[in-house]
Amino acid sequence: MTKINLLGLLQNHALFRHISQEDVRELQKEVVKLELGKGSMLFRKGDMAEATYIVVFGLIKLCLPSSQGNDKVLELIRGGQSLGEAMMFLDEPYPFYAEALENTLLLKIPRHALLQLLDRSPLMSRQMLAGLSYRLLGFIRNVERYSLQNATQRVIDYLLQLSASQRSNDIRLELKKHLVASLLNLSPETLSRILHQLMDEHLIKVYGASIHITSEEALKSYQQNMHALA
């Protein structure tokens, strides 16, 4: 069992940073620690949403299941982020499933405990609304990206985002390539073709799950030129 400072984690999380110490201590009594191994399910499609979850460390993917086996990746939830709030408020079953992509530690906050806290704290209610709105904006931007960018531009955008988040031109793919393809709304074959195309242009080098961006400026310029020609 991983040892953590539960009170400290709650106090320092953006969602609870501005509530009273007393409220945090009361909430602590309701929180349950969950440890998931790689490949373990947090919940399945159709399960009732009875809690909000905070990822302490690890990586969770949210997916729409497909009878053909090519499940659609909706979102990745990383350390410090939360999930499950929207469906919890609606009191509806999950329309997707959540699976750990690596060993993951989460805090489970039961619905009744969170709702009681929101009733007492208007500031926290606004913060949660802001978080949900930010996530909605992210989904809208993804739809915009799928609509306005071609496949190559989407892949380049993804690589540049990874480079920025990892602060390096030597980036590590968080997902297997077929999941990256799903996240970008591409087929695995299309993703593979585009990576080879970028390699042929000497813009990247691929070493399994690692990718070296030869020149960030050249990659951005290539993306912009494609947009100008579209």
UniProtKB/TrEMBL annotation:
<dbReference type="InterPro" id="IPR036390">
    <property type="entry name" value="WH_DNA-bd_sf"/>
</dbReference>
<dbReference type="GO" id="GO:0005829">
    <property type="term" value="C:cytosol"/>
</dbReference>
<dbReference type="InterPro" id="IPR018490">
    <property type="entry name" value="cNMP-bd_dom_sf"/>
</dbReference>
<dbReference type="GO" id="GO:0003700">
    <property type="term" value="F:DNA-binding transcription factor activity"/>
</dbReference>
<dbReference type="InterPro" id="IPR050397">
    <property type="entry name" value="Env_Response_Regulators"/>
</dbReference>
<dbReference type="InterPro" id="IPR036388">
    <property type="entry name" value="WH-like_DNA-bd_sf"/>
</dbReference>
<protein>
    <submittedName>
        <fullName>CRP-like cAMP-binding protein</fullName>
    </submittedName>
</protein>
<dbReference type="InterPro" id="IPR000595">
    <property type="entry name" value="cNMP-bd_dom"/>
</dbReference>
<keyword id="KW-0804">Transcription</keyword>
<dbReference type="GO" id="GO:0003677">
    <property type="term" value="F:DNA binding"/>
</dbReference>
<dbReference type="Pfam" id="PF00027">
    <property type="entry name" value="cNMP_binding"/>
</dbReference>
<feature type="domain" description="Cyclic nucleotide-binding">
    <location>
        <begin position="15"/>
        <end position="135"/>
    </location>
</feature>
<feature type="domain" description="HTH crp-type">
    <location>
        <begin position="149"/>
        <end position="217"/>
    </location>
</feature>
<keyword id="KW-0805">Transcription regulation</keyword>
<dbReference type="Pfam" id="PF13545">
    <property type="entry name" value="HTH_Crp_2"/>
</dbReference>
<dbReference type="InterPro" id="IPR012318">
    <property type="entry name" value="HTH_CRP"/>
</dbReference>
<keyword id="KW-0238">DNA-binding</keyword>
<dbReference type="InterPro" id="IPR014710">
    <property type="entry name" value="RmlC-like_jellyroll"/>
</dbReference>
